[in-house]
Design goal:
Strand order of the largest sheet of chain A: 1-2
Number of strands of chain A: 2
Oligomer: heterodimer
Number of helices of chain B: 0
Largest sheet of chain A: 2 strands, antiparallel
Radius of gyration of chain B: 16 Å
Shape of chain B: globular
Number of helices of chain A: 2
Strand content of chain B: over 45%
Distance between the termini of chain B: 9 Å
Structural class of chain B: mainly beta
Largest sheet of chain B: 8 strands, antiparallel
Order of helices and strands of chain A: EEHH
Largest interface: A-B, 26 and 29 residues
Radius of gyration of chain A: 24 Å
Order of helices and strands of chain B: EEEEEEEEEEEE
Helix content of chain B: under 10%
Strand content of chain A: 5-15%
Shape of chain A: elongated
């Protein structure tokens, strides 16, 4: 399998050098990919929950029903 | 007003992609630097973050940024001082490989007084978008709490996916006297 590479552009000479990532760099890259995926999934779950709370708060306001504290916190005054 | 605005170096990513674009041996003949990029990530997401690294070091960064898409409440983010996480090197948005084909993200980062011995503050702004189905803008200020002159700037993306073919980066030198 081809190793990922990075490019160095020497701004003084203009020479471009393609360098393969080291084992340590590849491992760090894979950890970041995994970590970012977890953070993204957590953030998406939070956004879905926040949207559900907002919808519930709106429905209750329209119906004249009391809101929970969490629902009330979604209202920006 | 700048009296000189010169292209120092540029790069276009060929087929196969590159994990980062690294401008090295940056000359010390300018007052400020400006990095302009247009990139797309090979990672499986629609929108993510562009990052930069200075002088090959991943430590001593602080940043505060704002994320806005025009519909949701703007979010903020950033890292504590002397941060070492990639999170602390976010400078803008980036379109990922599940965005519509051929969509690239644009951004720029301005480095004033890159040669002096003070901490290095810089301003970044970049967008991630997907042909009208979504778009977001990240604007932020960052500081590297290190007084070394900037001699190397690397462009990458937060989750380490490759920068795809036809991604570009341009480094400009700006002189004001």
């Amino acid at each position: 399998m081809t190793r990922p590479t990075r490019v160095e552009i020497d701004c003084t000479t203009g020479i471009e050098t393609i360098l393969e990532l080291t084992d340590a760099e590849i491992m760090e890259m894979e950890e970041r990919i995994s970590q970012h995926k977890k953070e993204r999934e957590m953030r998406e779950a939070e956004e879905v929950a926040a949207a559900a709370l907002k919808d519930s708060a709106k429905a209750k306001l329209v119906a004249g029903q009391p809101l929970t504290e969490e629902e009330a916190a979604t209202i920006i005054l | 007003m700048a009296t000189s605005y010169a292209l120092i170096a540029s790069y276009t990513v060929p087929a196969g992609g590159q994990s980062t674009i690294d401008f090295t041996s940056i000359p010390s003949t300018y007052t400020d630097l400006k990095l302009v990029y247009c990139v797309r990530s090979g990672s499986s997401f629609t929108g993510g973050y562009a990052t930069i690294t200075l002088n090959g070091s991943t430590s001593t960064y602080t940043n505060r940024y704002l994320v806005g898409d025009g519909t949701s409440t703007p979010a903020g983010g950033g890292g504590a001082s002397n941060g070492t996480s990639t999170y602390h090197r976010i400078v803008g948005g980036i379109s990922g490989n599940t965005a519509t084909a051929s969509v690239f993200s644009n951004g720029e980062v301005y480095f004033p007084n890159y040669r002096n011995s003070n901490y290095k503050s810089y301003l970044g702004m970049g967008i991630g978008e997907n042909y009208g189905s979504f778009g977001f803008n990240i604007s932020g200020v960052s500081t590297r709490t290190n007084g070394d002159a900037i001699t190397q700037i690397s462009v990458g993306n937060y989750d380490a996916g490759v920068l795809l073919q036809n991604s570009t980066a341009y480094l400009y030198g700006i002189t004001n006297s």
